[in-house]
Design brief:
The chain has about 280 residues and is α+β, with helices and mostly antiparallel strands. About 25% of the residues lie in helices and about 25% in strands. The protein has 7 helices and 9 strands, in the order ββββαββαβββααααα. The strands form 2 sheets. It has a 7-stranded mixed beta barrel. Strand 8 and strand 9 form a beta hairpin. The longest helix has 16 residues.
Length: about 280
Amino acid sequence: MRSIWKGSIAFGLVNVPVKVYSATEDHDIRFHQVHAKDGGRIKYNRVCSECGQTVQFADIDKAYDSDDGDRVILTDEDFEKLPAAEQHEIPVLQFVPTDQIDPILFEKSYYLEPDSATPKAYVLLAKTLAKTDRTALVHFTLRQKTRLAALRERDGVLVIQTLLWPDEVRAAAFPSLDDAEDPKAKELKMAGTLVESMAEDFDPTEFTDDYQIQLRQLLDDAIASGGKKVIPAAERAEAGGEDAEVVDLVAALQRSLEAAGEDVKPSPAKKAGRKRA
């Protein structure tokens, strides 16, 4: 893993230097859009709706449209004026009972690694949180955005989980439940018996993402069969242009020389290099 942030946790007069790592990763297979006719990659340009010109990232600002249709354009300088927590400090606001934080508020998780030759303060904080069954509410600034976050201990490691603000959680208002009939005692007893018959300790390793596994198998089978839905990498390279994402430079030069009528063979060293690639 690669650290994405460095700073320190500050609670009272205690300072705990840490490195931050993403605690989760997405294994979903990613797709991009192509032209169904020839498999060419569909690309999108940043085109201005006013002048029709393609705009570079450096010339792009952010805008907000009000309910009345007024548009406010903000620059990086405007955002720098906004209040934010110190970007290299995680201040502890308070310690709360862990069971008082509704799981619906949890957003993104990060591991914290001690960034000190003597991680005594890190271990002290982790063990204290575990012993008291408390979670620290902190401010955590990442990528110029300050979030409320929960700092807790997990298997001896400190973990930060960013939290949604209360107004980001929608109210569950369903009129269909207003006049719902309460279950009878016999129904509750039978349902409880069913729950107990299926009760087990939670082990996440027992569950697999069958959709992704079968999707990967579908792709592997398609590549192995070499059917009409598969465009070999060599053909995509020959198509040239920006649609070729990976181009073998040596092969491209060889084809250019052949097209020019030159009979040039690559040296044995170059051949070996291509085999290793």
